[in-house]
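Encode chain A's predicted structure.
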Amino acid sequence: MRFISTKVHGALDYLVAILLIASPWLFGFAEGGAETWVPVILGAGTIVYSLLTAYELGAVAAISMKTHLMIDFIAGLVLIVSPWLFGFAEYVWIPHVVFGILEIGAALMTETTPARIPHSHRHAPTTTL
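Encoded structure for chain A:
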């Protein structure tokens, strides 16, 4: 059931990316290790691939919305497993798991086609004589 529009998803992308980047300091787990850098890197990456997505809030239509959602899903999985994969679960894990679940949920509930064609996809009108 996909009920989140690509435009709303785009706004959430940038908001969640900023929250991911700030989360180590907001939630007090910025120790300079993987617990800090996993969300910071994934947040920065989200901004980059959001700017490159062919949807209403993308700047350059280099990747499809389906590809974007697949990256969101994978990033969510990485966030969920990162506390145990990188060995910081004894210190902090809840923010990583919560953000990961939210990312996966958004990926599964977002429409795969933008409601309107982004400006960067529009072709110049052709004239016939």
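The chain has one domain: 6-115.
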